[in-house]
Amino acid sequence: MVIGPRELVTPFRPIPLEVPEGMKPNEFFNSTENLNDLVTNNGLLVNQEDLLLYRKALGHSLEFDCSIIYNTSQRILNPLGRPVRRTQVPDPVRRVWNRMNQVILGYLVEQYPDPAEYLILAGEASLDATWPLTSPGVPSIRMLHNHFICFPMADLRAARPAAADNPNLTDGGQHSLFQAHMRDVYRRFFAEALDLQVLRNVHTEESRLALTGYPEGLPCWEIDGGVERLKDPRFWSEYDAILQGFLDFYRTFFSQVSTRNADPLPDLHFPRAVAEVLLFDNDFLATARKVRERCIAEPAYANSIRWEPAFKQLIFRGDDGRLLVTISQNSVGNAITELLGVVVRREPDAAGYQAAEPRLLERLLAVRRRLIEADLGEGIATAHWGAA
């Protein structure tokens, strides 16, 4: 068996939306009109907190694939002003969102109990507001959203290997700036900053998927207690803390790239660890100098810098059945699956999608019923399904 990332071909049914003349596709997909279409044609459930569960029309998997989006499109018309990460979400919304995550992940573990047969994951990706909407790779909806996906392992084993230089596989390992030049201080900062009781740091060999070899080089944590621990608010507090630590590291690093010997940022989550670990680490500051000098010398490189945090955070099931958490800076590719070495190539194939659609919808409607029973929203009726 060849170990390495896989490229999976997933059919989709072409979306009957016309992009107005003069607009880029991703400009249109961030519009209120597109979000209205998402609700009308693919919406499954919505609640008073503006959290929308929907079917992924351009999906990753035909086995199970849905998302929750914090749909602020009616209240915040500026796409660059919408929340793009968990730390920007109001506490009452985040509580409900965490419970929705727990219900859907619980359903996936129950329905797909064998890790040798199915890869399951739930994750979120964000982009910072400094990324132009027209940049290549910017996702089609600039609002914080979660992905819930199941891949049959048989499909992944049968998929062809992905090219090693695929631009979507630039999140970890030798490709990543953090991992290539600052791996030790990156991990030491997390260890110093975070007081974790539910999440336990695991070695790369424990977290790596045998089939793909990913996640490559990224810090990972085991969820002590497995899926039942997702019902514990302490887990979600620590899940947030990992993101907060990542944000402090990212923002501190690029503040030093921007301005040599810059003062610590005023709104850090872990100021002591920043001052004592990052700002006294020679590898950290030497790497910032290299990036700074290259920015000065190479305009194209400087233009590619993402000065504000962009991340992917993921819960996934390892080969031995343990639930694991990882986090990475975002890449141009942006798909959440690529942290695990799964590149999805979507191809228009209405017949192929239609053949799988009934079983896919059966599962999505089943998980919707659980959410409704838990008072986490009300069903949405579309042309394809009712509200109950």
Structure, explained:
Helix 5 crosses helix 7 and helix 7 (233-258) crosses helix 9. The protein is built from 11 helices and 13 strands. By secondary structure, it is of the alpha+beta class. It has a 10-stranded antiparallel beta sheet with strand order 8-9-11-10-5-6-4-3-2-13. The protein has one domain. A hairpin with an 8-residue loop joins strand 3 (51-55) and strand 4 (64-70). Helix content is 37%, strand content 19%.
Low-confidence stretches: none
The counted number of beta strands is 13
Whole-number tally of structural domains: 1
The SSE string, one letter per element, is EHHEEEHEEHEHEHEHHHHEEEHE
Task: Please give the alpha-carbon distance between the first and last residues.
Answer: 45 Å
Task: Give the overall form.
Answer: globular
Strand order of the largest sheet: 8-9-11-10-5-6-4-3-2-13
**Overall pLDDT metric:** 88
Figure out the total of helices: 11
Write a compact overview of the structure shown.
With 388 residues, the chain is of the alpha+beta class. The protein contains eleven helices and 13 strands. The strands form two sheets. It has a ten-stranded antiparallel β-sheet.
Short key terms for the protein model shown above:
388 residues; alpha+beta; ten-stranded antiparallel beta sheet; three-stranded mixed beta sheet; 11 helices; 37% helix
How is this fold's topology laid out?
Elements: E1 6-12, H1 25-29, H2 32-42, E2 43-46, E3 51-55, E4 64-70, H3 91-111, E5 118-125, E6 145-152, H4 153-158, E7 160-161, H5 177-193, E8 199-202, H6 204-207, E9 220-223, H7 233-258, H8 271-276, H9 282-297, H10 299-304, E10 311-317, E11 323-329, E12 342-348, H11 350-373, E13 378-379
